[in-house]
Write a structure and sequence with these properties.
With 109 residues, this protein is mainly β. The chain has one domain: SH3 type barrels. Helix content is 13%, strand content 33%. It has 1 helix and 7 strands, in the order βββββββα. Strands 1, 2, 3, 4, 5, 6 and 7 form a 7-stranded antiparallel sheet that branches. The radius of gyration is 13 Å and the shape is globular. It starts with 7 loop residues before the first strand and ends in an 8-residue tail after the last helix.
Length: 109
């Protein structure tokens, strides 16, 4: 299986309740001695207009948002295929908003 990298958007099987949907990869691909999990944020077309939704229009995505409150770790075997990638600036925006949500210091630039 190809390795997913931070900033890439993959189609991910999130199970029966959450369906198969695009997800932004945030964490590094696990090393051999780590759990085979990757940190993702799902993309949704069910926009609720709250502060933890980040809209990043891309041609490979339907109109919608990355919903930061749905941050989760998923097994790498659930990653199906890569569909695109965010720019460094777009990824920085997501990470900044996520830092705010989790009350973390902003990422170093």
């Amino acid at each position: 299986m190809p390795r997913a990298n931070p900033g890439e958007v993959w189609i991910v099987d999130l199970g029966l309740a959450a369906k198969v949907r695009p997800c932004l990869i945030l964490g590094d691909y696990p090393k051999d001695d780590e759990l085979a999990l990757v940190i993702i944020v799902p993309h949704t077309t069910a926009v609720r207009n709250n502060r933890w939704e980040v809209s990043i229009p891309k041609t490979f995505l339907k109109t919608g948002v990355f919903h930061l409150q749905q941050l989760q770790a998923v097994p790498v075997v659930r990653l199906q295929r890569r569909i695109g990638e965010l720019t460094e600036e777009e990824l920085r925006l997501v990470r900044s908003k996520l830092s705010e949500l989790l009350h973390l210091a902003p990422p170093a630039t």
